[in-house]
Amino acid sequence: MDDNVYQVETDDLSGRFLLFYIGETTYSLPLTHVIEIINIQHITKIPNVPYYVKGIVNLRGKVVPVSDVRLKFNQPERPYDDKTCIVVVLISDMNVGLIVDSVAEVVSIERTNMAPPPTAGHRGGESYLDSVSQLNGKVILNIDCDKFFQSDLAELFPDSD
């Protein structure tokens, strides 16, 4: 019975995306992956991780690894401010935090309004894209969560599939 409840909730979120900013660029994550949004908090650094993995946070007793999306997209580092937040997402049965410059809103995007991402260049995050959309005159880069975390999960947890 719980599986049916989860399926209904997932269906209700299908086609809905959380918009966030890195600099002036608008990105989105499928709402089906988003668990919660929290303020920046103390991050405990851990050794021998990629430079964009800032460390771990304690989220109500759970250890959550946190990556800075700005750094992963090869953007210059900047100090965190009152708009900077952590978007906690569920990937491969694991909670992971994404530090973003700011979150904007939740929107619905029809699949018919999505175009394939550019294939040339693959610098600064293009290889992590699922699609590109336009909404209210803005270009939105839609992140493929599995591609985004694939190398991180393999590096941080080499024994997992």
By CATH, the topology is OB fold (Dihydrolipoamide Acetyltransferase, E2P)
Per the principal axes of the C-alpha atoms, what is the gross shape?
A: globular
Number of helices: 3
The structural domain count equals 1
Let me know the average pLDDT: 83
Return Rg in Å. Answer: 16 Å
Class in CATH? Mainly Beta
Q: In oligomeric terms, what are we looking at? A: single chain
Structural class: alpha+beta
Separation of the first and last Cα atoms:
28 Å
Q: SSE order, as H and E?
A: HEEEEEHEEEEEEH
Strand order of the largest sheet: 8-1-2-11-10-9
Specify the helix fraction band.
10-25%
Structural summary, described in words:
The structure is a single chain. This protein is 17% helix and 43% strand. By secondary structure, the chain is of the alpha+beta class. It has one domain (2-152): Beta Barrel (OB fold (Dihydrolipoamide Acetyltransferase, E2P)). The protein is globular and about 45 Å long.
Secondary-structure blueprint of this entry?
Blueprint: H1 2-13, E1 16-22, E2 25-30, E3 34-39, E4 53-59, E5 62-68, H2 69-72, E6 85-91, E7 94-100, E8 102-108, E9 114-115, E10 129-135, E11 138-143, H3 145-156
Parallel strand pairs: 2-11, 5-7
Antiparallel strand pairs: 1-2, 1-8, 3-6, 4-5, 6-7, 9-10, 10-11
